[in-house]
Design goal:
This protein is mainly alpha-helical. About 95% of the residues lie in helices and about 0% in strands.
């Protein structure tokens, strides 16, 4: 019983870590896109 709880907790931590990673990757991409758009609009 206790082992099952530990395993499920571990799975939960891993999945939340993965979602945080993908979220930050998406945020970075959006941030870079905004910077690129701003730079290109300033140049034109």
């Amino acid at each position: 019983m206790l082992q099952n709880k530990k395993d499920s907790l571990k799975k939960l931590c891993i999945s939340s870590n993965d979602s945080i990673k993908t979220f930050s990757e998406n945020a970075k991409k959006r941030y870079f896109m905004l910077i690129i758009l701003r730079l290109s609009s300033e140049n034109s």
